[in-house]
Amino acid sequence: MKKAVRVFISILKIYAYFVATIVTAYYVYAFAINTANRQDGSDVLAAKPVIYLYPQKEQETFIRLDYHGKLTTSFPAYDDGLKGWRVLAYPDGHVVNLADNETYNYLFWEGKPEKADYDFSTGFVVAGKDTASFLRKTLEEFGLTPKEYNEFIVYWLPKMENNAYNLIHFADKEYTKNAPLNIEPKPDSLLRVFMVYKPIDKRLDIKPQTIAPFVRKGFSVVEWGGSEVE
What distance lies between CA 8 and its chain's CA centroid? Predict the structure, then answer.
């Protein structure tokens, strides 16, 4: 009788170990899938967002960036006293910064967010060698002009074209909630394109992201930038 009890207890221990192993494996798998599809951007730099202003006529404009993080650089310098930039904006996109009376093609900034959560459940998997053609086609679909998307490509292409593949997602509220823009006078149309990507070794199946075209009207503001996620 005692021997039978010992055998029964041993079987229960083996069963319990087996169940624990299966449960642990399941949670490890679930965590891996979740990590692959979502990325905490706390260690990610918001790289080279640039802001173009296109008023219908010359106008003084104030741009405030309420960034939830730390600005690491800006050009022209972000005025901490004003908490923004005050510029004369012109229809061709160039601005005169009133703090130094110098002319700039756009407003440039970079920063490290306190936290950002990027969703890679939709997007695009693009071979490194196809990066330029993909970006040209997709950014044009967004509504960027050749000048704007060529400047985007010149910055990002060297970082992406030598990767085997890039998993690319264009962030929306994931980005804008961390970097609200307040512009006076208020633009009639605003486009903010923020690409997040991570290099990968092989092609993955992913649901394609829908691109909503941008229609410019009146005073238009366009911003582009991006981040690499490891």
Answer: 57
Write out the E strands in the chain: 38-40, 47-54, 59-65, 69-75, 85-89, 95-97, 102-104, 107-113, 117-119, 122-127, 165-171, 181-184, 189-200, 207-208, 220-228
What angle, 0 to 180 degrees and rounded to 10, lies between the N-to-C axes of helices 146-160 and 131-142?
Answer: 150
Within a 10 A sphere around the Cβ of 70, how many other Cβ atoms? Answer: 10
Decide the pairing of beta strands 181-184 and 122-127. unpaired
Residue type for position 183:
I
Q: What is the pLDDT of residues 127-180, one digit of tens each?
A: 999 999 999 999 999 999 999 999 999 999 999 999 999 999 999 999 999 999
> Rounded CA gap, 221 and 20, in Å?
55
DSSP 96-150: EETTTTEEESSEEEEEEES--EEE-SEEEEEEGGGHHHHHHHHHHHHT--HHHHH
What gap in Å lies between CA 94 and CA 193, rounded to an integer?
19
